[in-house]
Protein: NADP-dependent oxidoreductase
Amino acid sequence: MIAARYARYGGPEVLELVEVPDPVPGPDGYLVELRAAGLNPADTKVRRGATPVAPLPSGIGREFSGVIVGAGADASGFEIGDEVFGTGEWVIGERVAAPAALLAAKPAGLPWTWAAAIPVAVQTAAVAVSSQDPGPGDTVLVSAAAGGVGFFASQFAVRTGARVIGTASERNHGLLRELGVEPLVYGDGLVDRLRALAPDGIDVVLDHQGPETIEAALELGVPRERINTISGYDTRYAVRYVGRKGLDRELVTRIASELEGGALRMRIEAEFPFASIVDAYRRLESGHLAGKVVLTF
Structure:
């Protein structure tokens, strides 16, 4: 099969499409032929040699959707031909082997590209919001609120009844207002703008950007235990890290159903064919996103 690999750390240009042996599922696993794959900023950090450092040569990508085309001898729960979505390590290629525990059934009416965004981006957003348990009377700050994770964290936070403020570039402010989020530009003067917009203070911070947001939160007196981050700066600032850990099948199945039924919004910023993976990661790393960047197969 053809898979994405890189043999040196660096920008998107280090990615190559190479021929590799078909993966072999374990006794309780399945072979999935991909239809779509979600791209995430965490992919780019690893590819550039940041923590965690992947041994070289390495694959890339952690979330996908596709069709089961093979099964291990003891596999149960799915059948050949079932449509699924799931997660794993370095999954971007024509096929991937995955244990049953990291797969969930895709609703028939859910687009492949939407399903491929759930296992990392949407699951992370749901876990981040629930871990802080905001509610009516709370003010929540979501940074990069229109991005791949922030777009969903914003929706989950609004559902709690909390007041939600989201940082984003001005081009995405209209989108945030549609979600019920009060938009704010990031950059110089963020602390002053937050003080003016929320004079009674910020209760919870959901960070998807990094130092600027965390430092602003600390300057505004937000307790460290009420600051979540997925940006990798949790240790530096002694705040809470939130990230993907496996697959909560009950949670992602519920999310998939809500997306299919329209109770939760999805936005795909850009789709690229697998052959254009370098361009896809360049788009992801260019910033100012509104939603997900995905590959199609």
The radius of gyration is 19 Å. The chain is about 30% helix and 25% strand. The longest strand covers residues 29-38. The mean pLDDT is 95.
